[in-house]
Amino acid sequence: MQLVETLAKEAKNRQVQRRFRLHRRGYSMPSPALAAIAALPQADLKSIFNTDPDRLSKLVLTQGPIRFDWSKTHLTDNLMAGFLALAEEQGFAARRDALFAGEAVNNTEGRAAEHPAERGEGHPDSVAHAKMLHARMRGLIDAIEAGALGEIRHILHIGIGGSALGPDLIVDALDGDGVRYDVAIVSNVDGTALERAIEGFDPHATLIAIASKTFTTSETMLNAASAINWMVEGGVDDPYGRVIALTAAPDRAMEWGVDETRILPFAESVGGRYSLWSSIGFPAALALGWDAFESLLEGAAEMDRHFRLTDPAQNIPLIAAFADQYYARVLGCQTRAVFAYDERLALLPSYLQQLEMESNGKAVKLDGSPVDGPTAPITWGGVGTDAQHAVFQLLHQGTIITPVEFIAAIEPGHTLDPAHHRALLVNCFAQGAALMRGKANVDDPARAYPGNRPSTTILMDDVTPHALGALIAFYEHRTFANAVLMGINPFDQFGVELGKEIAKSIETDGPTGFDPSTMALIEIALGDG
User: Fold this and answer.
1) Is residue 521 domain-resident?
2) Given this model, what pLDDT does residue 6 score?
């Protein structure tokens, strides 16, 4: 702690203040621990390896079927000490305990965030309630498989945000394990998305799952109404009899026309982007089988236990947050790139965009005061070697420094020539090495690589339900740990509301009172004057 105290004093100078970009309007002064971290010198990655022979043992950790490697980041012993002090300063242990105890960690909305309870880790009453609702879901799945709703060959899942991204990721990642139905997941209110989804579907053999926490989400309900019309036009006698409602508002689902026996509730304390473990995961559980869904839950539960019980110095989601905080808040990196070197994880970057940016894209702390620096960076990414030929030019030689995360699996997801998977992994590992190493070229600067660019590698044994559950839970807890270190609430999302409110006002009250640009757009495109 003496080192931290000494560095905190040094951090008062103007250079450190500039480093934090405190001139930006609305930022408050950084905490002592964060200021101390900012005062530490940044070493070159190659020199860090040369001076620390134990680096791999410190920064490569394994949890279950996943290996996490932060050795190619700028984390050092001194930075780790600084961030551990920051975690203590921000009350990390207490906020983590509050999360698992089912306390109202979502302070702006006055409720808990109980997605871990869906995996069996949380307040005993909440865990018991989640198990009861899971049993209800399994019972309905058993009935569907037994033919209670007639022949089912297709599943049309309608939702948006977390109600669609989670199930879409799970089904897409694990469909090689024997998907038993055709699954289409629709989120966009653009009718083209729905038309394409149902193309080739037989309405008489289709089950519709409507996922909406409130059962009032405008985009979801419009798509649901159009899906019902499609069934009616296809000659289905009782289209509502083919609907399963996934919601925290069962009364509204019944008012809409869904029979109580086909409503799968989930707890109000489970947020949308954390909800795939609840009945929102119904299409994955039906398509992949209950055993796969249970394995997904257990993989997540193992990561829950690691996060809840492991000392901060060895806590995998927390260490990941340390690296995130260093690059975003100290070095001012405004983006973070995620590249899945496995086609099965192609949807992971999109999933993480919502999880991370909707959770931590905030401007105020828990007490409503301004944040003391940047919060969530922009999460973006792509798939393996495709991305190499699209965006890696900027990552290697551009002027914008972007922390990169590589995700790969040792076992392939196909039965083709092993040369495919070997080439995939070789490219993955080579990119991380190249970002760090760089290559000088005095004679031709256009062919020079600066190097010293950070990356993390997450290596899974295989993309199984268990491993995928652990991976997603890791990202959830990493997001929460980042929020704790910044002193913000990751469980509300008021930023998505204003635009939707304005859209609704245009529909109900007409286009009045807007700026000239918006008025002109409405008149030209919609004919409303």
Assistant:
1) no
2) 53
